[in-house]
Design a protein that fits this description.
It contains three helices and seven strands. The protein is of the alpha+beta class. The chain has a single domain, classed as Alpha-D-Glucose-1,6-Bisphosphate, Chain A, domain 4, CATH 3.30.530.20. The protein starts with a strand and ends with a helix. This is Bet v I/Major latex protein domain-containing protein. It comes from Selaginella moellendorffii (Spikemoss).
C-alpha cells in the first residue's frame, strides 16, 4: 500500500544527551511539547519507556468544543541511536489515527538536529487528506520543536 509521510526538523543549540533526556521520556510529552489543544498526558498501560506502554493524551477539539483521547503505543526506544517510534490510535481525531511517528536526534558537533516525522497508509478515496494530515501533524511537531528549543537552549 502507498504511504504518506512528512517530517518537521529543527536545530537545537544543546548537546544531544540533554535533548534526549527530555524527549525520550515517553510519558513526559507535555513537559516539552506544550501545545494548546493538549490538556493531559499520562501513561495508561505498561511501564513508561518500555515498548508496548501506552500514553493517553486528552486534547481539546476546537471545532466541536469537546475533547478526545489519543492513545499512543511506544514501539521502539533506542537510546544508542536516539530514536523513539510509536503508533497513534485516535478514532475521534481522524487526521492522527493510524500514524506511525518517529522522533530522531542527530549529533551535529555539540548541537542537536531533531527530526519528528510520520508515516501513514495513503487513502486513495480521499487524496486531499494527505495535505490536511501534513498541515495538522507537521504544525503540531514544529510547535513542539520550538517549545523544546526554549527549554534546552
Amino acid at each position: 500500500m502507498a504511504k504518506w509521510n512528512g517530517t518537521a526538523r529543527g536545530r537545537l543549540a544543546a548537546p544531544i544527551e540533554k535533548v534526549w533526556k527530555i524527549t525520550s521520556n515517553f510519558g513526559g510529552l507535555m513537559e516539552w511539547s506544550r501545545i494548546g489543544a493538549m490538556k493531559s498526558c499520562e501513561i495508561s498501560e505498561g511501564e513508561n519507556g518500555i515498548p508496548g506502554c501506552v500514553r493517553k493524551i486528552t486534547a481539546e477539539l476546537p471545532d466541536s468544543g469537546g475533547s478526545a483521547e489519543i492513545h499512543e503505543t511506544l514501539l521502539e526506544l533506542d537510546d544508542a541511536n536516539h530514536i523513539l517510534r510509536y503508533k497513534i490510535h485516535a478514532p475521534a481525531v481522524d487526521l492522527f489515527d493510524g500514524l506511525h511517528p518517529t522522533l530522531k536526534l542527530l549529533d551535529r558537533d555539540g548541537s542537536t538536529e531533531i527530526e519528528w516525522g510520520y508515516e501513514v497508509d495513503a487513502d486513495p478515496a480521499d487524496p486531499a487528506k494527505e495535505q490536511r494530515i501534513a498541515a495538522a501533524v507537521l504544525g503540531f511537531y514544529s510547535a513542539g520543536i520550538e517549545n523544546l528549543k526554549k527549554i534546552v537552549e
